[in-house]
Amino acid sequence: MIINLWYVAEWSRNVTDKPLKTKVLDQNLVLFRDEGGNIQCLADVCMHRGGSLSNGWVTDGNVTCPYHGWQFEGSGQCVHIPSAGADFKIPNRYRVDQYDAEEHYGMIWVFMGDLPEAERYPIPPLPEFDDPKWKMLEAEVTWNAEAARVVENGIDIAHTSFVHPSFGGDSSTNEIDSIESNEYWGKSVNYMRPPAMKGWRKNFRKEGQRTRATPEWYLPGFIVRLQVDINAKMNIIMFDCNTPVDENTTRTFALQGRNFFPQKMFDKGSLKRLHKVFDEDKAIVEDANPFYLPETMMNEVSVETDKFMTGFRLARRRLIEKNGWQIDSFAKRDLMGRKVVTIPSPNRRRANERGDGWVFDSVPMVPAKNSGKEEQQTKIEPQPFLADD
Ligand code: FES
Ligand SMILES: [Fe+2]
To answer: Which CATH number goes with the domain that contains 96?
Structure first.
């Protein structure tokens, strides 16, 4: 699991002025709306005696711990301690980690890390969301799988022939037209020859009709975006935000958009087909081994048509090996139930710079390569087909 990225923590509509518990990167979070309706996101653990803030309530825009009634404002600072009396000056150190939260596309995005704003990869664009030509539907899926495996499956064109019979044609006829990428994003244009659509939709796409499919991956949000151009006028997009709830669980906040048949009567069939596709993927991905994406390219093999997925793997490994942004889940597991560790937040970073210190320790991290702290070297071995990249 990787810190210092934006992730989707919840649907916007679920967050009110009543605290809501959610989990991202194996950390419980409390989400609530303050008096101005702004989303606030704090680590869901009180630094007094470990109360869960999400079991509390909101008082004058502050989340109130249900154990002894301490109140925390949106910045994470404790602002009221009933038992200490009005004269008690609350130290700066009485605060919990606060994570930046924004609302986009009907979802709450939280920045899980302490990187300054200017250095963050942006929240991926979804221009169709506000475009009246597009009808957007929401869906949600929980996978017993690691988020990186889920992303890789979503951008894999070749599996459709075997896992999704309604869409995959003969995989040997798939063509990769182009691939482009930067350090946090990649896009590939492909042409496929899928089977004809079924039933009343049969005239929209004929058997083996050359069909464009454009998958994209984004590291922020662990997003898979897929556009399928059924024909010249009918396009479908998927925008799946694959949130690592913990290292074994991924919660996908999915939006499906179509620029045809805006009527509500078509939504039910669309959603049914979408969930069928997710079920087909889950049956494969949840049983894939190793459970986690392999740490090197040496322990699996790839062919030319896997090149786009390899780009995602390499970009992700850069965050781990160059930036040192991977949580050491095994070290964290050793601390379970004995010690609270939280994902570093910008206010923790500022407090440390001021020398104020912080009550909770930071979650253990896998050291970056060449940081002098690594115990064991793992190499990214280039594959022959990457030679031209
Ligand atoms: S544990 Fe939260 S107020 Fe005491
Ligand atoms: Fe799939």
So the answer is: 2.102.10.10
